[in-house]
């Protein structure tokens, strides 16, 4: 199996597209902008889901399921919300097909037109708040802490596997609270949950912050986000958590009786991460040889490849390997023993490198004689010979090492790619030549933000949570600024 | 909490609808025919999913994800398939909304018409076999054993929560094989997996069999099914597994090179169960007091209700109960200790009865003094006093007992409701007066089947797998018949 993978230096974008397809994560379908997530890619997504779901439940959330369709009139109820989504809505207008009268095939049956068009959900605030109206009467019904795992559709013109697809999979949390403070706390909490997941499981360091007004979710009063940095110096928004104020409660007339007996509008949050995380995972760690997966999310953590001539040798190897497979599995490690005789060891090595399996053990005749395994780690592509009696411990510690190492590597890369600048000229130069995050002063005006975006394609990724207070002057207008914000070109 | 539940005897259908809503399983949404699955209902569905997913993986299947949308032309490729689904398709025709020119609100943007209409998947054979064409070249690529958890849409005119909704959640397995025998084996295997799940987890006895030609899935050459019997004597198809022959391979031109180097069409199966199972669960076990849930699928297996006056008494009770909660949880039992002081014990008893919690422990002042718990089981509504030191063992054994008991009860009911008849008059009488399955001879002709359906509303639910060979005469036409088949009115 030759990899024939374009190198990152040659064409990062091409490398990404090729890698996603060749490593069996996903591929384009016959439906414009919609992808097929292949079993290997889906197995990673399942691991992400399982961990996130656990973290959501640990913070008190329950899952539920709301309709795929949203009546057009619902979407219109929150003004800024509809403005944000109207241009990318898939619209259902009919509910039946029929045979064409001229016998030319199947056509839409015009007699089966819907009274009101239905939108395929681009996000579910409207249908959910229409439901919450029925669930909430008094403060005793609050908070509602609900999450949904679902597919959503946003009709994008330019799509890329995982990063931007017309249909994608995600989770969307939608919570309802009695007070503004509680809702703000919830929104902030979920940003921290996302950051913890990204860093400890995906091995992707992220910067926590808030969005500027123009980058906020359509209908939000505050958007918290986590921002990651890809190897090509472009940022990627990996998750968002929105404080929605009382906007949706007002649009859908959701009030509750307070302890004192007053009627008040309910406070809301929503938060989501999507299959886009798969793109972030690939672009953070992988190299010119293929995927590099964090052990905590790798469908196969360890692969064992026998090197043999003839079935006798294979039998002798299997006799040693099979108990090892059992022992590793008993420790919760997912192992594949690949003894296919249709493919050569070199082919297999290439395949598992391409697929990012963290640890590879090879065992041949000489290893049998010496009582050793050849151990290769995917992140550093280094090999060593390890005694059989030490192999279980070695594998366990390697998996931890790799998880830590790829995080540290990504963190070091990001540190090297946060540049402070004080002039707009320097800004343009860094954005153009070096990439990464640029930390600069900005006067807080959307017009300045727009101008910068237009001239450099860089946007404000976030106002970092931990930004130190520092008086300064906007690099563009010279007007006063209270703290630096982070700019970058972004996916 | 008064239950105010219509009794089954009074109006079974009304009882079902009320129960689903009042026990917080699901409710109708503002979108015609689409339901909201509430957290309590979704928690049961999650448990079903987890167990089924485990069983699918144990039989070698992997998950993947395919697009929500299907181009109209794909659906048309398999003739009987499109005929089966065309009349209930939600059709996407546009991809954008815009502000109406007269300022009246948001309208569909006619400039954003799709070149080819997209169908919201009613099932995914077509989009999947369009994909499999790319995945399959040689016998080495087979079998493909893939499952998908997804939402699907079938535009039904009359809908009922869980039983028949426009959108529903399901899993659909789609496998590809080199030989007819292997595909048949797979289809049959999955029927057995479904039966095992229904009986051992849901506590729902099922009859395994095959469908008659007119009841087969659109595009299948054989449909295996599991059929359950509800308390009102109506049958419910709980799962189906289809042998699709080479129909989809031919429609989508999916061939493979055999070991001998010939090009042959691939053999296919598909199989699915859906949120309809939730309806079967409710209608098999529940009673006039509410849900009765099998312990293996109950989100809360044990609830503990303290009976106290004043916080001192509550503290004394909690001191005893909290270690018990821990101990039960350590055994993998899900426990809720409900010490809300906003509701009285009687209200709580009612609530957990309605929600079908299998075991309820109550503990009051006298229990504290005597070192006992009052233990109530939901299935029989019986109570007993149990010594504190025996309570863990008691709860464990009760959960097993209840799981077994509700299955046995349902099985006994079904046995009483399989009636053999030899004349059409008797048939009509049993169908009308007693309900349940009727075992009768049929000549194998679709016309006879149609006539029976028209005259009695009963359909052939299945040709049971274990039907004993028995020569006989069709009860309607008197023509020869080789074995009895099972008729019933059905959901």
TrEMBL record, chains A, B:
Catalyzed chemical reaction(s): tRNA(Pro) + L-proline + ATP = L-prolyl-tRNA(Pro) + AMP + diphosphate
A Pfam family found in this protein is HGTP_anticodon
InterPro entries assigned to the protein according to its UniProt record, in alphabetical order: aa-tRNA-synt_IIb (IPR002314), aa-tRNA-synth_II (IPR006195), aa-tRNA-synth_II/BPL/LPL (IPR045864), Anticodon-bd (IPR004154), Anticodon-bd_dom_sf (IPR036621), Pro-tRNA-ligase_IIa_arc-type (IPR004499), Pro-tRNA_ligase_II_C (IPR016061), Pro-tRNA_synth_II (IPR017449)
UniProt GO cellular component terms: aminoacyl-tRNA synthetase multienzyme complex; cytoplasm
Mind listing the GO biological process terms from this record?
prolyl-tRNA aminoacylation
Q: Where is the Aminoacyl-transfer RNA synthetases class-II family profile domain?
A: 27-294
Is RNA-binding one of the keywords? no
Gene3D superfamilies to which the protein is assigned, alphabetical: Anticodon-binding domain, Bira Bifunctional Protein, Domain 2, C-terminal domain of ProRS
Family designation: Belongs to the class-II aminoacyl-tRNA synthetase family. ProS type 3 subfamily.
What does the function comment of this entry state?
A: Catalyzes the attachment of proline to tRNA(Pro) in a two-step reaction: proline is first activated by ATP to form Pro-AMP and then transferred to the acceptor end of tRNA(Pro).
Whom does it interact with, and what assembly results?
A: Homodimer.
Matches recorded under HAMAP family: Pro_tRNA_synth_type3
By what name is this protein known? Proline--tRNA ligase
Could you tell me which species this protein originates from? Answer: Flagellimonas hadalis
**Taxonomic lineage:** Bacteria, Pseudomonadati, Bacteroidota, Flavobacteriia, Flavobacteriales
Gene name linked to the record:
proS
């Amino acid at each position: 199996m030759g990899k024939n993978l374009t190198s990152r230096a040659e064409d990062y974008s091409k490398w990404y597209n090729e890698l996603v397809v060749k490593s069996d994560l996903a591929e384009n379908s016959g439906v414009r902008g919609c992808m097929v997530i292949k079993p290997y890619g889906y197995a990673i997504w399942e691991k992400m889901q399982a961990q996130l779901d656990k973290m959501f439940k640990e913070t008190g959330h329950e899952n539920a399921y709301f309709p795929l369709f949203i009546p057009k009139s619902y979407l219109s109820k929150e003004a800024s919300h509809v403005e944000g989504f109207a241009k990318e809505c898939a619209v259902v207008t009919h509910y039946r097909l029929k045979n064409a009268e001229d016998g030319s095939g199947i056509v839409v049956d015009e007699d089966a037109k819907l009274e009101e068009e239905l939108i395929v959900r681009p996000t579910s605030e409207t249908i959910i708040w229409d439901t919450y109206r029925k669930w909430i009467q008094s403060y005793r019904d609050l908070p509602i802490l609900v999450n949904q795992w679902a597919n959503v559709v946003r009709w994008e013109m330019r799509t890329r596997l995982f990063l931007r697809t017309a249909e994608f999979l995600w989770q969307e949390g939608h919570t309802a609270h009695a007070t503004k403070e509680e809702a703000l706390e919830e929104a902030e909490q979920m940003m921290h949950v996302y950051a913890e997941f990204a860093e400890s499981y995906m091995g992707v360091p992220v910067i926590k912050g808030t969005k500027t007004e123009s980058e906020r979710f359509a209908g939000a009063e505050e958007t918290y986000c986590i921002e990651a940095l890809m190897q090509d110096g472009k940022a990627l928004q990996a998750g968002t958590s929105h404080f929605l104020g009382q906007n949706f409660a007002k649009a859908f007339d959701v009030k509750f009786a307070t302890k004192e007996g007053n009627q008040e509008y309910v406070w809301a949050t929503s938060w989501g991460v999507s299959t886009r995380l798969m793109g972030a995972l690939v672009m953070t760690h992988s190299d010119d040889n293929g995927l590099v997966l964090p052990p905590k999310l790798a469908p196969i953590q360890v692969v064992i490849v026998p090197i043999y001539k003839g079935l006798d040798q294979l039998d002798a190897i299997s006799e040693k390997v099979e108990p090892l497979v059992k022992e590793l599995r008993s420790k919760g490690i997912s192992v594949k023993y690949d003894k296919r005789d249709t493919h050569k060891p070199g082919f297999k090595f290439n395949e598992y490198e391409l697929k990012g399996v963290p640890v590879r053990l090879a065992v041949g005749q000489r290893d049998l004689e010496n009582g050793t395994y050849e151990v290769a780690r995917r992140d550093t592509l280094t090999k060593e010979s390890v005694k059989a009696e030490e192999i279980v411990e070695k594998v366990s510690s390697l998996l931890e090492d790799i998880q830590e190492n790829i995080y540290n590597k990504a963190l070091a890369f990001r540190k090297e790619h946060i540049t402070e600048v004080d002039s707009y000229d320097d800004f343009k130069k860094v954005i153009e030549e070096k990439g990464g995050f640029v930390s600069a002063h900005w006067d807080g005006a959307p017009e300045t933000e727009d101008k910068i975006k237009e001239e450099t394609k860089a946007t404000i990724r976030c106002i970092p949570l931990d930004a130190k207070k520092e008086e300064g002057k906007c690099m563009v207008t010279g007007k006063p600024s209270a703290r630096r914000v982070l700019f970058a070109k972004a996916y």
